[in-house]
Inverse folding.
């Protein structure tokens, strides 16, 4: 598990290999990830948007921006956490993701970024 703390918000990431399949006559590798966002601070915060950089060893970097996470903009109270799972398709068995969440401190209305550390995707058969 990979973890990182930014401004009292702890991000923990766990990854998994989900399998392979053909799509548009190409092999694809499916990876899953579960992220826990834990508020270790004193103020309630809300996640408003996300920014991802996806690295596929056979393709160029892909950048994705979007509102919230999996259709939600969670409010996370002090001492509480929000966990969600999502996935990523790559054209190679090795890759990585990193990014950040845009957050708002609901007490002060300050906007800030919480960084998600680089987490790697490796199909078990790709490593010797």
């Amino acid at each position: 598990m990979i973890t990182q703390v930014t401004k009292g918000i702890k991000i923990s990431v766990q990854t998994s290999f989900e399998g392979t399949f053909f799509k548009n006559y190409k092999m694809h590798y499916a990876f899953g990830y579960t992220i826990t966002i834990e508020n270790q601070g004193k103020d309630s915060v809300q996640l408003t948007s996300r920014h991802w950089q996806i690295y596929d060893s056979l393709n160029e970097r892909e950048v994705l921006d979007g509102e919230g996470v999996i259709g939600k903009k969670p409010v996370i109270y002090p001492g509480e956490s929000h966990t969600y799972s999502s996935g990523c398709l790559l054209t190679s068995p090795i890759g990585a993701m990193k990014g950040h969440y845009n957050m708002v401190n609901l007490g002060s209305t300050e906007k800030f970024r919480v960084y998600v550390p680089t987490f790697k995707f490796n199909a078990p058969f790709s490593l010797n």
Notes: Residues 42 and 78 are 5 Å apart (CA to CA). The mean pLDDT is 95. The domain at 2-121 is CATH 2.60.40.1470 (Immunoglobulin-like). The chain has one domain: 2-121.
